[in-house]
Design brief:
Layout lengths: L2 H35 L1 H8 L3 H8 L3 H8 L13 H8 L3 H24 L1
Length: about 120
Amino acid sequence: MTAAAQNNAAQIADQLLAEIREANLTYLMLAQQLIRQDKAEAVYRLGISEASAEMIATLSPAQVLKLSSTNTLLCSFRADDEMVWGLLTSSHAPQRAANDATQRLHAGILMAGRLAA
């Protein structure tokens, strides 16, 4: 690998790490806001335990910055079920308007069931 290619790879890695840190900061700030507004809803929407919600809510700004600066993504994506994605992204144009509310409700029920398990 040439020096230029190594430099480019290092820049890309640095950029990805910076984006992870930014995502972490945004997630923690959003999580705190949601928890402070409605803890029960935040626990459901974020997919976290009540203990985690309590801890996140009590973090100081300095702690949020320190925690967000890790190289590991703090949030997890729960939409790994193809059926849920299918419900959320279904593009049946003629029936879409009539089924949107039903599809969102069904997806919400499926996601809630996954949290309860």
